[in-house]
User: Fold these one by one.
Assistant:
Number 1:
Amino acid sequence: MARILLGVTGGIAAYKSVELARLAIKAGHSVRVVQTPSSARFVGAATFEGITGAPVLSDEFEPDPARGAFPGDPAPDHAPISHLELVRRADAYAIVPASANTIAKLANGLADNLLTSAALASPAPLLIAPAMNDRMWRHPATQANVETLRLRGATIVPPGEGMLASKGEWGEGRLAEPATILAAIEGAIAAPTLAGVKLLVTAGGTREPIDSVRYVGNRSSGRMGFAVAEEAARRGAEVTVVAANVSLPRTHAVRYVDVETAAELDAATTEAFEDADVLIMAAAVADFRPAAPEASKISKTGRDGLALELEPTADVLAGVAAQRRPGQVLVGFAAEHGAGAVERARGKLERKRIDAVVVNDISRGDIGFDTDANEVTIVTAAGEEPVPFGPKAQVAGAILDVVESLRAAADIKTA
Ligand code: CTP
């Protein structure tokens, strides 16, 4: 049973938060509701009060008859500042539906009504389920605000595609289903499954200098590694990312070490690995580098061609695997082309002496390098787990589920 504070903003989808409150109560949770003044134009306080059995607040200066208590709690004998007491007691603060306006306020830390003030004062996990017109949802301002909140640790339950409120319009912006939102709230409240675990992730692609301005590189953006790092931080892990040339937004919940070359990545990873419980090697590390990079810029004048001699780099993953302590879990990635990918990945698992290999089929253009989605197979000694096509955040979750089961199978206890 959890105490869920439900923040309702102005939008037609507000009626669906009534259903969410009902489902949450049916599941044994106790719910209090705060509303923005404009949400009351869509669903009145009496409806939420009837469902939750508790007073609804929408004004910061309005005394709370329940004194901040959730249904089932004894009411305190003093009259606390209502919104501070509500968030102090809440196990999760879910804003459903979240309008573009409220999302913008939350991203910027505004506190101009009870709902937004409560969000600023809340130590509880924040969950945001946006609902709006598809053009408002796709607007770069809204997308940037949602990204800001996500990087700050909020769980975003993305809107689905479907019929929108305005007649005849179809698009992305429709509130997620109440059951989906409730599952996300319960997930956000659940005990952090990687608490106390030191997790090291490598991400991005290395660049090997040819001369002072040119390099040999690859198309890895770092999205997959960053998604794993963010999800691991959400699960309570202490996360370090060794980032090779990644220009994606960063979260405060993760420590980043920036590197450029395979040699720098090797040094940073080997050092951080000593103290790590888990290594997830998502970086695309160069296998070869120019043998003799020029210190200055190579000029084309007087040349009719240029041959580049490459020498092998060290295999970082195999190197750290050779020094692993009992209990350290190692996950590699394999970018494989077409048929036989899983068999080749199994070969890597054994050759590199690691616990899992995440296989990407790079013959497909819609997944893998520099895209937002992925579809992988996770190969372990126990078998193969196909992870269906989905956003990289979802694939990151599946990878970490495997890490958690590998740790459980090895009965690893983290202090
Ligand atoms: N890797 C590494 N150091 C390198 C190259 C790769 O640690 N110099 C890691 C990658 O981060 C990845 C895994 O090894 O997690 C698999 O890399 P890949 O290049 O696919 O495997 P190889 O064994 O090099 O096989 P091949 O290039 O022949 O496919």
Note: The radius of gyration is 25 Å.
Number 2:
Amino acid sequence: MTKKFVYFFGGGKAEGRTEMKALLGGKGANLAEMTNIGLPVPPGFTISTEVCDLYYKNNKRYPAGMDEQIKANLVKLEKVMNKKFGDPKDPLLVSVRSGAAISMPGMMDTVLNLGLNEKSLKGLIKLTGNERMGWDAYRRFINMFGDVVMGVPHHEFEHALTGIKKKYRAKNDTDLTAKQLKEVVSTYLKIYKKGTKENFPSDPMIQLKKSTHAVFSSWNNPRAIKYRKINDIKGLLGTAVNVQTMVFGNMGDTSGTGVCFTRDPSTGEDKFYGEYLMNAQGEDVVAGIRTPLPISQLAKTDKKSYTKLVAIRNKLENHYKDMQDVEFTIEQGELYMLQTRTGKRTAAAAVKMAVDMVKEKRISIETALMRIDPNSLDQLLHPMFDPKEIAKIKPAASGLPASPGAAVGHVVFSADEAEKLYESKKYQNIILTRIETSPEDIGGMNVSKGILTARGGMTSHAAVVARGMGKCCVAGSSDLIINYKTKTMTIKGKTIKQGDVVSLDGSAGNIYVGKLNTVEPELTGTFGRIMKWADQTRRLGVRANSDTPHDTEIAVEYGAEGIGLTRTEHMFFDHPGEKAGTRIKPFRQMIMVAEKVKILREDLEAAKTTENAKEIAKLEKELAKPLKQYKDALAALLPLQRKDFEGIFKALKGRPCTVRLLDPPLHEFLPHEIKGQSEMAKMMNIPVKEIQQTVESLHEFNPMLGHRGCRLGLTYPEVTQMQVRAIIEAAINVKRNNRIKVLPEIMVPLIGHVNELTITKDQIEETIAETFKNKKASKTEIPYLIGTMIEIPRAAVTADKIAEVAEFFSFGTNDLTQMGCGFSRDDAGKFLTDYVKMGVYEYDPFQVLDQDGIGKFVDTAVRLGRKTNPKLKTGICGEHGGEPMSVKFCHRVGLNYVSCSPYRLPIARLAAAQAVIEEKLANKTKKKK
Ligand code: PEP
Ligand code: MG
């Protein structure tokens, strides 16, 4: 027996269910589900996604038995509808629509009114008594079929229609009479013949076959491929095809069509939300050609349908226990449901709905946590316009608040150009400004910070896509007059050129000319509730990477349980409120003389062994000045570092703090320009030439693999001593003066061999002992730890040895990726983009941890380390610590914490909670098996 490829729905029951999304696509599975729960769904059948897969595998041919199954289902449909395909008296008309398991709005093809020809049209007209509507349906069908199925350019039909409208002075399509539409049809048929070199097919079976082929082919059209790439949609078989009885929203004033959300998709508010148009077909609402009405209005014009729709809204929410995005049509007063799916929502709405639905006892806390995409929280963590500032100024124009947030950027009028300008780095902040957007604009929308349109409603393409992308959008601002040719727009008489800066407030729907200031977002309310639940659920700790007291304060506010990485080298650059050069000058002086001091000291040691008094005296004299400069520089740096640490410890209020000793190659700090070199020469009272020679001598061909990390401390131990003294003195001061617990964790960077750590640890402990002695302190007062970064593959595979010396490991996955994959952190961007495109790596390994490769180093090091040191504390402080998939990996390999930038903390907290829930679900499934 051949496999089942086609699934019927109609007559009160369906062969599919929601759970069959992978096979029937989201649309097909939900049409089946709605049928099963008794909603008014026009009957039809779904051709499975498996067919799409086989279609491509089989050189664009259907699998055997497929045609017979379609025919059998068509017969069934005719029976349920009591109509016949192509019947000249009472024809069955169908729509053919795509529908993949994950919704890809507007990306694939649709054909409506299929089954019409000269004969069946007569039947339709007779039956509906509406000649105008019949001819309108037919001309739409020829246009859609010609464009979508046969590739006749849409603008050719559009051009002809405009011509006929002009001829009869018709303003809108709806102004054309039946006779005039008949003329449109005859022109369209000619355009079709010219474009395809064949007559328009009158046989509905041929129409159906060609249309289903077209839908399957559209799975791999460039915009669908791009959409899947942007939205990271992978692993689907293909699209399903839904063949469904047509219902008409354009049969006059008692007919209409609309799109609704069971709750507000922008704010999450529990209010029925949507738009509709009377006497219109579905695409009229989405295309934004006519401005739709708010759904509440329907209560006034068609109370019966509105009441029914509200009841369906409640039934759908009770059934699916999630916000639904539905499409409906009213045909001569009769309501039909054409689609339901889980509605796309902004992050703010996702959070509010999840919390509300827990309160309403619809879902569990765990389900609520799983409903929110951790990455989307980013939208809530970004600044908004300062409410005080916008209260004082009037917007230049306003439109619909289609997707919340704030965006400031350069106006660009074409999506292609936006992509080019972004890639060439001319503009990184772009406001894509269009009359209306279409699926072709997807790439340009993706690189833009905000979207602005002159036409279209809350469910227009621009609004839906922007919300899905989490971008700010103001839609349908009729104040804008956009001229693509001159690349300008006028707002109430004021001209804005391409490249000018505007500010968009997507929450209020306002447009401002120029740049507005932004403020930090609020972290309380429903957001705080979700975070609380995440914290109660997660096992993994969360810390932040922070180098300043200010960032540490933000980190604590965002939920940091400590600092996982303080990069001390960042403390040597200028600080606000300090005189320029306060820090960098002594630091440069220290570097300048460090090597000289080292060489002279070695020579002196050698001279001492030969007891050459003259040589000893000469070297001692030579060493005196650089040594003084070396010590002076370190003495100047010590209080600055101490002050910074005190600030961080205070802001942490008793939380632990991992402070990393100096890491980067020294030459990064040196003056490479003559101005800086002269300044240094003057300050140190030496010739510029000497400065230049030192800069030259410190040059490295591979600085990332050069004199950096623990290697610096091993060759210049005074640097380590100064840093450790600053950390411990700061800890003692804060403990004593502010009565705050301080838990410093001193971290040694770039260890590859255990001996590097052993020697460094001795230096650290010696300095701590000395500082404790001077300050009459002890480890009981300041319970410090000494540990290391694991960021060199050698360290990872010898972690058992290293853990005998280290009290903690922190995975530096930036360097571990660099050294493990052999990709330069600074140069790999160029080819990694191609690598991801080619599928060599699924994601950029610097952004998403390469779990199969670099992840193995992490896993191995944790296992080996814990073998020799069961109390070993482990964390991650590379960029991956704030990336959800990587955070979940860290949970699975049993790290104690992740550390990331303060703004990514809520993302990490939620991802860590989801990791626990996913683990539970996986264990349950395992048990079942
Ligand atoms: C790392 O290598 O992952 C790390 C955190 O250190 P840095 O980025 O400072 O080299
Ligand atoms: Mg590193």
Note: The chain has a mean pLDDT of 92.
